[in-house]
Design a protein that fits this description.
The protein is mainly α and 67 residues long. The protein is 54% helix and 0% strand. It is elongated.
Amino acid sequence: MAKSSKTPKKSPAKSAKSKVGRAKRRLLDRLIRQSVAQEKADRSERHAGLKRDPRAGIDRTRRASRR
C-alpha cells in the first residue's frame, strides 16, 4: 500500500462565473436577512402597542397548578 503525500492540495482557481454566482447569492441572502429583521421589528412594535394599555379586572399572572 502506497502512502499518500501529506502536502495540502491547492484549491482550483475561482472562475469569473463562480465569483458572480457567489456575489449574487450573498446579495440575496443579505436582502432576505434584512427583510426578516424588518418584519420582526414591525411585529414587535405592533405587539408592544397592544400590550401597553392595562387590563381591566384581575391581572392574569401564572398560578401554581392546584392538582
